[in-house]
Protein 1
Amino acid sequence: MHSIFKTSLAALVAAGVSASSAIADGHALTGDLVIFSDMSNPAPRAVMEGMVERFGEMHPDLNIELTVIDREAYKTQIRNFLTANAPDVANWYAANRMLPYVEAGLFEDVSDVWEGQISEELASTKGALTIGDAQYGVPYTYYQWGVYYRKDIFEEYGLTEPTTWAEELANCQTLLDNGVKCYTIGTKFLWTAGGWFDYMNMRTNGYDFHARLTNGEESWTSDEVRATFANWQQLIDMGAFVDDHQTYSWQEALPFMANGEAASYLMGNFAVAPLREAGLDDDKLDFYQFPEITAGIPRGEDAPTDTFHIPANATNKDNARAFLKFVVSAENQTLINNGENLGQLPVNALSSVDDDKFLNQGFDMLSNKAPGGIAQFFDRDAPAEMAAVAMEGFQEFMVFPDNLEDILERLEAAREDIY
Amino acid sequence: MAISSNTTPPPTRGWYKRNEIAITPWLFLAPGVLFFFVYVIAPIYQSFSLSLYDWNGLGDIATNGTYVGMENYNKLFGLNGERADRNFQISLWNNLKWLLLYLLAIPGGLFIALFLNQTVRGIRIYKSLFFFPFVISQVVVGLVFSWFYLPNDGLFSIMLSWVGLEIRGGVLGNPTAATYGIIAAGLWPQTAYCMILYLTGLNSVDPEQVEAARLDGAKGRKMLWYVIIPQLKPATFIAFVVTIIGALRSFDLVSIMTGGGPFGSTRVLSFYVFEKSLSERGLQYGYAAAIAVVLFMIMLVFISYFLWSMYQDEKEAR
């Protein structure tokens, strides 16, 4: 009862003052702010609640209503609530993942939030949030992808972090000879195979080719793509990946690494937390950048960016804009991305990276060792329909590499249809 | 009013009173008819019209959708120079496998029902144990079976290894075995359902006919085939209806156990509709609607048959 009364009162007040609530930062906000968030895992959820609390303290008269929705369910619910029951702020992802919503006019143009200094502070992700000439959201975090490996196993067999493809294959052979799989992976939900394709293709043909391919400008039956798959097949033929990976999710593939049955995992930085929980401390777990395949090609990296947006049908857009500005501030990004919270990288250039082994390596890699460019991720760079078809093909290839010709023709046919 | 019984009714009788017999049934039917139109007929019509558009489900169809005529169907069937959608063909084949193999639930249910139709101490407990799989949710059935099928540590692969067999990738990871694995999981609750239908049917078997047949020397298989099963015809009909419909609706198990994988080999039409529209990478509402229409047409064949045979029964009963 109390909250209903409070909400309706606040709504009344909001109706009365909304005309005058166009405010700059620092002014106290009034009225309502409805936030839908997909940050449903324990740590992200605490971060989201913390942000709302701190924003609420800055604006005591603002009535903030936060709804946290299960991360997977959110992906299908968003299209309903954006049209029917739009919140003022919503989570989503950058690049092509937001394109359908922008094209349907469901995300608000927030270029004004990006005006001025913010634009420089967030320069690294501006491209991923730009469609046409306008920006449609703000980033709050990103994270590196790369190879997480069992340092103790590598030391046991006298291996070092590989930097070239030859070293990589040699390492892998040594591991296999000793009965350890080189890589764990769970491809049941397909996207993990997309990560492998991203890296194989970016290292074989370079970031620019990869970007054109995900944009539909290159053919899937081209020699370049075939070369990528040929390199990938070297690993598959060796038996480098754990068996039956098509039946596991990425979480179900973690125990192979924790038990020492597999030595490494190509994953995003979010894999560190569960691996640490599984008992791998920093002496046992380490990270290296995916090795070079074609010599001399500038390395590109995957670094998916998670974002906040304002739905076009939102009611309290001024409050929402103030919240977005709060989210991107250097101070907030430093706090929410530190090891105790998200354990990821802040996007704002002025914020500081928490002193964590993997965050430091990732930050260094993305800032200094990725001259090729930063990709989002296969299913965020390619349109949804293409990603669905392609990732299914990658999974099939990883199990039945002999079907490659058929798979490539299917992907090429899909490309002709989709773009 | 208690005057005399032979006075003619007063001429002021209301319109409703005069038409009571004709109208009352419709009044009682009205809520049902209304809901049927709003929730069944209207969506069918909407699916039909949606299937003629190219629309990603976002925004308003009038502004964001384009009318493409039969284009979605051309893509599905590979007509008019389009490439036939292979995933659609896989789904169609899988639906056929479901339809045929799911029918095994009927003889299975009959067998268990005959077995349980005896008066032994505690028979009710055994009956409820057999009925149990139908009570638990399909999601739970799917999860239990996917653990059962796990490669290496799953009970099923351990059992297979006793006879020296191994299915590559585990049942659910093997594109040829996965659909059969899911159907087997689906048969578990469905058999229980058919069993309960037959158990109630067996209660109404006429003991005098059984007695008479026995006097004529019928027993065993002949008794079952010529005396019992004909009397179970209504139960068989219902079991057939629910099994066919269950097979065509097979969505939850596919979604829970494989998510359509590995590489789309376990898709069925209902799951494919979901995948193309509501799933994470869906966004093709028009196309999904076209698949739904095809599924509806298949169902319509069965529905017409069911309605026709029910109509025949009614006519005979009259």
Note: Residues 19-84+284-318 of chain B form one domain.
Protein 2
Amino acid sequence: MVDQATLDNDEPLLVAKSLSKSFGRIAACRDVSFSLYPGEVLAIVGESGSGKSTLLQMLSGQLTPSAGHVSYRMRDGVTRDLATLGEAERRFLFRTDWGFVHQDPAQGLRMAVSAGANVGERLMAVGWNHYGRIRDTASDWLTRVEIDTARIDDAPRTYSGGMRQRLQIARNLVTEPRLVFMDEPTGGLDVSVQARLLDLLRSLVAELNLAVIIVTHDLAVARLLSHRVMVMKGGRVIETGLTDQVLDDPREPYTQLLVSSILPP
Amino acid sequence: MNAPAYNFAYLDEQTKRMIRRAILKAIAIPGYQVPFASREMPMPYGWGTGGVQVTAAILGPQDVLKVIDQGSDDTTNAISIRKFFAKTAGVATTTATDEATVIQTRHRIPETALHENQVLVYQVPIPEPLRFLEPRETETRRMHALAEYGLMHVKLYEDIARFGHIATAYAYPVKVNARYVMDPSPTPKFDNPKMDNCPALQLFGAGREKRIYAIPPYTQVVSLDFEDHPFEPYRFNAPCALCGAENSYLDEIVTDDKGGRMFVCSDTDYCEGRQAAGHHGSLSAAPYKEKAHG
């Protein structure tokens, strides 16, 4: 007998079908299709202007595609087209079953309220009404992302860049989402802080069986975190495959150029 | 121009109709902020331009008007608004809560229980309870529309994290009719329980912000809180120094520069009524009796 968990993992979590988006005459994204399975980490790489951020915004329902659609398997097991979700449902999805980690933590955090409240906000939004429990959960999450719990009542504007990014991750993961979108999560951090953050992300992803769609121009990030890679250029997906395969044995000239532009270690 | 130079209760009839339409809508959707075309009034913003417009729109010749400012009938703001309507509408005015049919208030609800034939009009400086938590008005409107009020609890969380208890003492957020979160204007949280299931109609006018909202009679009004930090009204732990009342909201008055202070009822009408009925406080042997105002 096949148990429910295996069955769940065999069904795609998110399916994109021939997604396109054009802004006037500019086609930012052309005919992108893929399926994402639970627990899978997909990296979207490419240079700036290749359409990766546009794609991410369409996938997360923030931008309506010009053509094609995105469907998502909700927690009740029913797969639904994002375009048919009402605004209330979409926003609810966004603060429960999804996470979105911005490149700039100031966009994803409330800089003026304490770290504890930042983490607790999603819980309070889904109806938690017990201060003690909210606080315990918040401090538990701060520990998990390696922030000293003594800083729980400090506002994130007093935090360093790396801490802010980790706090943003805790804030997103507190409702145990199944899918997290990340837009250049390590951009703007120095190399040692980047390494620590990537390490943390990798263990959290494995531990929570998170599906992640991560947009990055940093191939090292893709190699370290992702199972699969999609390479974009000029709004099209030009190459896709297992991470090691694409990065060790790139087929397309553009991918070869990308890979060879990294300095050898 | 052949418009009459004078109209009953200052505002012209078309303006009153516009305001009444907003009031009707506000009553129909308890706690919802209805936009209205707020007029310039002959007083500065912050002095009750919203409350005055609401009062002007609902006032009839038979009404008896009472105006209080922080519970007091005899402060500048209360006296000028009372005089304003005595002059422009010729209505009877009073300081007795019982006798009034329309009570305009700034920052208090009278101690005397209100009854069904009364309308309480609040002056509101900032109608949006989410204002300092979410700066985008487009976003707060959407949050109201979708009843996303987690952010309101973030404020209460912050209070407890910083002070160990919910330190918000006035403008304490309430949920009206189990739907809209509303700012009860800067009344002390002591007054919040009086709004719940109140027999009188409660109207809120914000002139600068151009919003009107309402609590119809007998509507459920719940103060937000946490299970482990329940809502608690606050009151100085002392009896009134003039009338000895143990359950009224008190003002602290500093009497000298050596730490001397006295606590007296903030509701002057309530305090005077109790003194006239023979109640005394520790400092009630006043050297002379002040002439009643009016």
Note: Chain B touches chain A at residues 133, 142, 146, 148, 150-151, 153-154, 157-158, 160-162, 226-229 (CB under 8 Å).
